[in-house]
């Protein structure tokens, strides 16, 4: 079945076998490597995947930088066929661009590289949906800035699943993982009223951040309220409101939105958070929105994971999002 | 309280104390060892337990072979009294037959031994309910074949809780843990229409397996749908349909049906799976069906478990099943 | 921002920084140390926290004695602001009294010290709500006895969240963690009809304990029933009934009430238990009851925890309880 | 090969198969269970094994009480044949008496039971070598007292491998695991000059304990010095000196004598301790001394072990000691 | 520095970057992938690496099958430059052939494939040194048989570092990991006198295996004796004796030869085994022998490893062996 | 015994109890907190301890920033009395200054703060021996620069225990943890000939770094050679040579010098490294050198540690160094 030239042998198990012509691929056999020699095809992808292995910008010590590699290893255990929706992701063409190059001791270079990478994606793959695998939440500010660099006239909104506001003051410790939304608001990249954050709860946000959110007009709903209303309705309403006022929606999933029992690999996950089935449902709905133009998955530290539970849930988030994306295209 | 002959001493804690005459037994004090010298009593058991420590037939490296021993250690922390149902399992007589002998390097001998063990059970304990503790899912095919060897005229259906179809092609890699249902269909042991699989979901089954299932007439319901309808109704309906057409129902629980947050010891458990309370509810209902003639619990690898969560859930599955079984007898 | 005298330095990270004048404190910056030099202020606290590091009285080997220290470390990651309720716990004054001194080889001295500590609290802080961090469940009997020593005429009831009855016979092994409720009943400290235990289930209580509970008039509801009715209603009803007949309610949370997937650090947690969001909801309602006079959190062994999930859930239980307490004061 | 009555089946893997007539036994097949019905044979054993599952007397929280069970599970992976010495332990008759019954909340009862158990052993098995599997080090005082109860006229010395003096003041916290040697000295059971402690080092003993040791005439040698001189010579000399003045030598191995890299399951193991090969060498030499009359292995907490390294080393200590014992008999 | 075509990006971190023209490569950048299109170069490699991911032939449940992948991941943290010997392995050309294809349920097919793979190596790379990464020890018998199929007239000896004889009876459980040496002796592939096994010790070999070894003339030395004599001398003597009588020496390293404190990932490692520096010294000397024609590393289960200690030691064994090989060439 | 004002209570177990007047202190009771109100005493300390919680400058993701807190927790299990040397560290006055304040996203600010902290120490505590607890190895460059800022005329040499040269090119990734020695050489802070690095080995340094070391005249010795010569002699010779040419010696211990079996918490520890007893011996000798003016302990990531082995070894390194320091003063 394999095309490996040596009789009786399989290639080394983590070599670049992507893009093989396999009838029923696993995810790693479906996602293609970028091909430098056929740049004319770069625009033809439905989606592009970009690893953003930066977590030295985290307030707490984090190895979320290891997550892109962890994702690539974990998605080998997923097929492309979604049984729930009877839909095969392999009908999409998806390319893996590799990882943004990071500097060891100068975080501002890292952030610039991330912004530039998003610009390059927008230039080279204008019709593709970018999916970014963090890394910590500081990257979201850079990615949206990069997007806006190319599309300065678009009004961009944010749908955020998160335990935290991410509205900390940048003058305290610079553009850390606690600041991305404030970073975008203060730089007039996004308006407060165009941010919808779902899943906040409990004792994990200082009061001043809530005050700031209220003053900035940021929209948010606690996990408790979201659970009572039902995830389908809550996400649907947020998307409807956003679609009515913005041109494009950036979707960001902070894995610490998970309940602590479900997210050992998201060190900031807390008691009272989202359960796995709620998260997957929310993500698929977001993927189906015509205006969602990009997404990221952040703050997942695979070195702290247990039984790969959080990493696999993260990969499923990506695939559920792409499921919504396929459904969007079929509408 | 103990009858150990040495004053002040307790016997070694894992010695064979089963079958002691204890007023309020723990599970290990209730389940009896098989007694070679009183073979005339062999037919009097309500249920027989059989360990099937085979997992070298697993596609992925597995230590599910260690699970029968893990169960026997873990059930010491369970009483026989079910508070929810105000019912005491110790009114049942249950015997532990030990484990099927396995061959190290010839899996076909293992499979034959498993089949023969089920035949022996059907002969020696014709009125007992067999409960098999795997081991991987390949054993289910052998166990049902063994059952049919003794009861060739019975039409046997399957109720399956699983993340996977288990319908892989046997010509690829032989009778592995991905193949048991197909094995039974292709050998005309069970009909496709007599299989009900509940709990499948997500990206864990190739499209061709779904096609095969459809062509074979296998019945299945995704986890998402089952959760929406409610486990009680879903299992009830599946059992009703089966009861209307088959003579006997074999019940098989692949522990990977659990959500990944609840099943660290089931390495194939995935995001979006069944929660513990849903599983226990489903199992008890199945135990209460008059036509359920045997059950197994498979694909639980205790060496990967965390805080014994999955092993204890597995033991509870067995006890909840026996709870249903007692309720069935009381009807 | 810090007042540490040495330029550029922060104090050692776990030194006693509590009671600092910080505008938006973390929990450890809000809870005050007891100040020996201003004993006149001892009565002014809204709540007092007492560590009870005793677990050598546990039937199974336990390191729950390490839990008070684990709590104090873990609560540094919580703010005092509760976003769900838009309420700031820092408006309460809370003092940490430290830990009850324990004897290594004489458990009766430990128990006497615990009882005396509660008496001292009732004398020194008559208007404060005591919150005790165990240790194992044997401490509850001593704490309620100490309370009754000071308030002999009050009729005290118990609201208990637990997988177990805790009604074992004291003549077997003395006042272990399996006996606190029976200890109180047999000593006429509390009446059976004044005990409400919610969350029991499955195969974790011998039949004789249920019989004892019934004969003693202890009220209880299984987890299954509580989940069907809804936690809000169940706890509300139990509190209403208690409030109608007793003067004060002691609230005790055995962390083993959690489902095993959510409570790796509660070694007696079992399959089929309470989920995190259910527990937090129950606790907050209890905190809001005007008659609840004290609470404890027991049987959490941090050395067995995974990803701090159970310890953080335990801390959240304390904070959710205080949230209810603030709401009570605002009524 | 197995005599299990059921064709194709093996008995449950941890049932009491000891004492089977197996030509080349594993350790669990060689060590016999005590047989209540043939008490006339009780005196014929070469050695008796006694589990002493007490660790609630430990200063730090400990689960060393789980160690006897851990040993019995672990020794299944050892044969009786010692390749180094070309000697087969199965030529000895060894019986497992089970475990001393412990009380949950009264440690003085536990200690009395342990003392009584040793008295029973000396009465029932006067010619057998007792090997005690702790438990914490507090048991050593009780075991030697029990021995002396039966042999009041014998002068008993102690050879101790330990990181600590175990000379703490009993008036502080009672007969904890820090006190056994002092307990014996103060009660005139053993003389200071008859104690030889090897392996102490570093920052793990208060100065006053050294002063006490010096004043009491206790002999000791640091690990550093022992390593320089060589374990064979050091142990040989200590035994020679002891043999010259006492009637019997009790040998006690505190597993915390191991270097921390080799003893994860001995929580008090420290940097700079003994390596595995040094420990095994020391133990075998001690076993060969004609005057060594009993031994114990203490302070091994299997719940903290990693990869079973410390438990297996502990079992090997027992077997190496028996190797020396066989060599003694052959002299 | 990187030649990746996309500005600012690095390729996915585990893609096939081997064989890049990097001035100071890490091991994964040095070892080349096999190139199907330039088969004329296949003979030019100094060494070939072959993964043999078979462990379902293990007596105990094992995931040693995962080891080739673990090696390939771990060797990224090693440079090619050996500072101790001031020698750069990158002067050698080494190719990675990938893994032998294994069958899931028919171990005899696996064994045949392994044998055939060695034959293919001998044909396609006649001048290369094969290094096999197991997998369990059963593969050694197949690899040597495959070698002999191509070189039937050569007399092949074995240098073995192992805790065990690996001389179990094949009629018991077939060609398991306990049998490879006996398999070769009984099939007249190797003579008993041409086997030198170093590192056996303790209670891990039944007496009958020693008797068999003696009768077969197998040479062996215990770890204790080897440590006393010094590893350099012991290995040197064994090689000298072998070189004097055989044509070629096959070198096999069972990682369970390590002391249990150093080999958590070698589940059969035992107390009293080899320390890391001793193993590395032994391996380098073996690599330097002119007659050593192949080597394998077996019985390392990376799923049980702690802190990657055993996997990294295994990779170092491979590199130390190649160091010796380079020194051999320079002689 | 405790002076805590509340009867029967102990203070919270990790509060600042240092500097208490305890007759036989544990390390945390001996080391004093800095007292802002008695600045006149600041110069009277024998040694000052400074935490340097920076590891975002690490090439690989690291949580070595958590190490100062881990040290402070772990040293509670150490006494001040060194039994080997019969010497009590509590005769020294040692102060804990707390931790250098770090910036989240600007590493150059972190490095400047570290340098300034060392300058402040040299000014405020001119007669004290500074001991720095890292953090990663990048801090060493800053600390020595800070020292030189105050003592510009002193010639400072370095004694380094390390697996690596730490001579990477700063133009690649800035002043990361791979560069400190080169940083100092290129900035003419230290001369190559004044650096002695002991413990390098294996495949962990690129050839170009060795070339650079040779050209810069850096002195180094492999672990293998050091073990053969004996640690005492090797360290003694290096110190003698340094003492002959420099004014002061800075001693830096990279914990990755440990063998991988002994250093799970030092992620860069490798096979073939130093054993614990060798490290402790080396450190004590260094502490005794009259010219050693400061020391640091780096690259210990407590979140990866197992059984606290590496953290406790790190604390012992600090205490062994202070032991040497006391011996120096007594000379």
UniProtKB/TrEMBL annotation, chains A, B, C, D, E, F:
GO biological process, one term: L-histidine metabolic process
A Pfam family matched in the record: Arginase
Positions with a binding annotation for Mn(2+): 137, 162, 164, 166, 254, 256
The keyword ATP-binding belongs to this UniProt entry's keyword annotation: no
An MF annotation (GO) of this entry: metal ion binding
The keyword Hydrolase is annotated on this UniProt entry: yes
Superkingdom in the source lineage: Bacteria
Cofactor note: Binds 2 manganese ions per subunit.
Alphabetical keyword list: Histidine metabolism, Hydrolase, Manganese, Metal-binding
Cofactor needs: Mn(2+)
UniProt-listed InterPro entries: Ureohydrolase (IPR006035), Ureohydrolase_dom_sf (IPR023696)
Cleaved signal peptide residues: none
Family: Belongs to the arginase family.
PANTHER family cross-referenced by the UniProt entry: ARGINASE/AGMATINASE (PTHR11358), FORMIMIDOYLGLUTAMASE (PTHR11358:SF35)
Name of protein: Formimidoylglutamase
Annotated source species: Alkalihalophilus pseudofirmus (strain ATCC BAA-2126 / JCM 17055 / OF4) (Bacillus pseudofirmus)
